[in-house]
Amino acid sequence: MPVADAEVPVLIVGGGPVGLTARALLERWGVQALLVEKHAGLSPFPRARLVNVRSMEIYRQLGLAATITAGAFAPEYGRIRFRDTLQDRDFATAAMVGINAPVPESPVIGVVTSQDRLEPALRAAADAPLRFGVELTGLTEEAEGVVAVLADHRRGQETRVRARYVLAADGANSTVRQRLGIGTTGPGAMAGFTTVVFDADLSRWCADQPAGVYFTPHGIFAPLYPEGGWAWFAPTPEDTAHADWAGLVSRALGPGTDVRADVLRVQHWTMNAVVAERFRHGRVLLTGDAAHAIPITGGLGMNTGIADVHNLCWKLAGVLHGWAGTDLLVTYETERQPVAHRTLQQAVANTHLMIEVQNRRREQLRTGETAPVRIELPWSEQYFAQLGLVLGVAYRSDAVLADAGAPADSADTGTGTGRDTDTNYVPSTEPGHRMPHLWLARSRSTLDAVGERFTLLTPDPNSWEQQTATTPWPLRIEPLPGEHIGPCDLGPHGALLIRPDGHVGARWRNLPPGDSTTALHHALTTITRSGPGR
C-alpha cells in the first residue's frame, strides 16, 4: 500500500468552473476537499460565455447569483447577431431565451459573462484549500480510497494524497480519464480554433445593437466585460508563429475600418465533441469536460458540467456522512451520461445550423442578392430556447421512485432520462423531474427550499410532521401553499419528496395508506441506497 503524505475525503482535480463549483457544493455539505490545478492560476481567457438559467438557480442556492450578475452584461446582451462584417447590419438575429429576459419557469435569469469573470467569484465561495501549479501525475486505486501522486511544479516537490474519492474536472484532455483508460464516443476533434483577446473601440457598430455574440463569415466577435474588451474566435491559421494577430482581427472587422486591435492574449484550442464511455471508475468520478466535451455553439458545455457536480456532490456527501450507501454513486452515471449524449447531439445540431445560415448568406452574396436571409421559424428556438434541455431533464434511476413506489428505472422504459423536446419545457412534479419553480412566499421559490437536505413539500405538514422527527437523513418539511396543490398534481394531504439537487425523488398524491411513516422511510432508504445489505 503506497504511503500517503496527507489524507482528504475528496480530491478535486481541475480548477475551472466545474471543479470550483464542486468545491463550493461540497463545503456546503460539510465535506472536506482539496482542489489541485496544474496551471499557475485561474484562466486568463474568456472561454465559456454563458451561465444559463439552470446554472444560475444552482448559484442562487449557493448565494452567488447576485455577485455573478453584478459582473455580467445587462440582459439586452442576451442576443446573437449575424452580420457580413461587424460594421454591417444584421441579416439574422435571435434572443437567448432565459438570458435576455426573465422566464416564468425560473426565479432567476441567466447571464452573458466570461469564464475569467466567473471563476474568481466561484473561488471566493468556499474556504477549502486550492493548490495551483500542482499536477496529478499518478493514480492508484485501493479498496478504501485512491492515492494520487501530485507534482508541485513551483516548489519542485512530489506528494502523495490519499482520498476517499476523486472528482475529476480536468478538462477535455483529462489526465485522470486517460490514466484510467476510459475511452470516448462521438465525432471527436471537430476543428482547431484560436481566441484573440484584444482591446478596441467598436462601439460605433455595437453600442446601439448589443449582443453577446456576433457571427460573421470572418470569425466570431464577442464583448468580454461590461467595461470593455473583446474576443475574436476564428479557425486557427496554418502559420501561427508568424501570424499578425492584430492585422487579422482588423481585416476581419471589414474593409475600410480604421480600427487597430490592441492584442492582449492569444490561445489555440480544439473544438471536441465526445462523451466518456464511463463516468465512474471505482472511487474516481468524471465530471464536466472530462466526462463530455461539448461544442461551444449554444453555450451548453460548462453548464452541463455544473449540473454534473450538482447531481454528484450531495451523493458524495451522503456516502461520506453515512446516511447513503455507496450504490448511490452508481446513479451519477445512470442519470448524467444520457444527458451528456443528448446535449452533445443538440450542440452538434446547433453548429450545423450556424454553418447553414452562414452558407445561405454566402450564396446570396455570391449571386448578388442583398436581401436578408430568411430563416424558417422556429430557428431561434432551435438555437437558444432549449428550456426543455436546460430545465426539462428527468432522471430515471434507482435514486428515483415512481409513483407506485418502485425505482423509476424499473418502472420506465427510458434509457436514463425522460425528456421534453429540447425547445419546449413543461413543468412537472413527476418523480425524476426538476421541481417546478413556484413562489412559496415573496421572493422565496420552491427551489430555495431545497439544496442542503431532502425537502418534503406538502399542503398538510401536520400529517407528515411526526414522520420526520427521527429519520437519520437530513430532512425538513416545507409547507406548500394551497394554490399550488393543482399545479403540483397533489391531493390535500399529498407530498413531494425533493432530493437535494432539486429533482423530485418520490410523490404521494395523497397520504399513503396504512403506515405512512414506513412509506417515507422506504422512499428515503431506496433513494439513498442505504437499506440492509447496501
Protein described:
It is a single chain. By secondary structure, the protein is of the alpha+beta class. Helices cover about 25% and strands about 25% of the residues. The chain has 14 helices and 26 strands. It has helices at about 15-30, 55-60, 65-70, 115-125, 175-180, 205, 245-255, 300-320, 330-365, 380-385, 385-390, 410, 460-465, 515-530; strands at about 5-15, 35, 50, 80-85, 90-95, 110, 130, 135-140, 145-150, 155-170, 185-200, 215, 220-225, 230-235, 260-275, 280, 285, 290-295, 395, 415-420, 440, 445, 455-460, 475-480, 495-500, 505-510. A hairpin with a 2-residue loop joins strand 13 (about 220-225) and strand 14. The two termini are about 25 Å apart.
Largest sheet: 8 strands, mixed
Number of discrete helical segments: 14
Percent range for β-strand residues: 25-35%
Approximate helicity band: 25-40%
| Gyration radius, in Å | 24 Å
Low-confidence stretches: 375-380, 410-420
Silhouette: globular
Quote the average pLDDT.
Answer: 89
- What would you call the structural class? alpha+beta
How many DSSP E strands? 26
N-to-C terminal Cα separation, in Å? Answer: 26 Å
